């Protein structure tokens, strides 16, 4: 009899443990949109944003704090949704994978919407635009993208790893890309390589380009544009509920002028 009771107890315990596991499993697969899944002690549900904070004026460090357009827009979204924003600074290259696996709720990093990325993640509406521009030394012979792509040209190009600047120039240069494109972990590193003569040009988004160039000396941005793009927030394809919520808040913030006001606070009209 005792043995029988013990057996029943054991079965009951296994059943409840596996039920618990099943519950927390489903919480996780919602990529932490439930506060219990993250062990959050505050009342508010957490909204985890993955970014790469070396991309002024969208995200950059001011002392210990990460600030910028994306941060302010994300804060406004979180406030509207009654959620608590948590920003995580990681390599740009790891953002999409981290969002896909549900480690982070969303990726916001001046991220360009591309057809290829749409295969892996869902995007919100676009909240800003960018242009891939070309930085060279002031006395450079390079005057446009055509000089870089010309037959027989040997100019070396620096980019931030896995950004659209990297993707486009690697595609355009084809076989020559292997020897001519150097991928750096941050835009800062790419620009430092340009300043020290290791590369002849850097291809990067126009606003970060402006702030890098004004912080350095002897560099300039070419007048010609390489590619125009839209920035948006990315989400796991499994988390359309969160995407819809965030996108709803974003739409309102665009409609009432909040997003434009935030952008204007960082980017002065020329
Ligand atoms: N717009 C470019 C892209 O999506 C570059 C973004 C880089 N962002 C960053 N926070 N480092 O590929």
**Proportion of residues in helical segments:** 40-55%
Number of helices: 12
Sheet with most strands: 6 strands, mixed
The rounded Rg comes to 23 Å
The best one-word shape is: globular
As an assembly, this protein is single chain
Helix and strand composition category? alpha/beta
- Ligand list: arginine
Strand fraction: 25-35%
Number of strands: 12
Our measurement of the CA-to-CA distance between the termini, rounded to an integer number of angstroms, reads 86 Å
- Poorly predicted sequence stretches spanning 5 or more consecutive residues: 1-40
- In sequence order, what are the helices and strands, one letter per element? HHEEEEHEHEHEHEHHEHEHEEHH
Overall mean confidence score, pLDDT: 88
């Amino acid at each position: 009899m005792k043995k029988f009771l013990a057996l029943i107890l054991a079965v009951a315990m296994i059943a409840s443990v596996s039920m618990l596991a099943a519950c927390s499993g489903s919480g996780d697969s919602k990529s932490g949109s439930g506060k219990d899944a993250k062990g959050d002690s505050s009342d508010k549900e957490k909204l985890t944003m993955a970014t790469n904070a070396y991309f002024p004026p969208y995200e950059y460090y001011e002392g210990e704090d990460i600030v910028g357009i994306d941060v302010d827009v994300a804060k406004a979204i979180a406030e509207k949704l009654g959620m608590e924003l948590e920003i995580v600074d990681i390599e740009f290259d790891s953002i999409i994978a981290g969002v896909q696996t549900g480690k982070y709720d969303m990726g916001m990093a001046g991220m360009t919407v591309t057809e290829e990325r749409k295969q892996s993640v869902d995007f919100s509406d676009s909240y800003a635009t960018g242009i891939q521009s070309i930085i060279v030394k002031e006395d450079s012979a390079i005057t446009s993208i055509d000089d870089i792509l010309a037959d027989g040209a040997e100019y070396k190009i620096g980019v931030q790893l896995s950004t659209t600047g990297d993707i486009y120039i690697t595609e355009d240069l084809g076989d020559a890309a292997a020897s001519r494109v150097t991928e750096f972990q941050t835009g800062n590193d790419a620009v430092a390589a340009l300043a020290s003569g290791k590369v002849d040009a850097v291809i990067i988004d126009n606003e970060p380009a402006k702030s890098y160039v004004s912080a350095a000396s002897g560099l300039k941005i070419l007048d010609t544009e390489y590619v125009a793009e839209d920035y948006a927030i990315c989400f796991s394809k499994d988390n359309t509920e969160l995407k819809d919520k965030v996108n709803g808040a974003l739409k309102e913030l665009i409609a009432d002028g909040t997003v434009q006001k935030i952008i204007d606070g960082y980017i002065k009209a020329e």
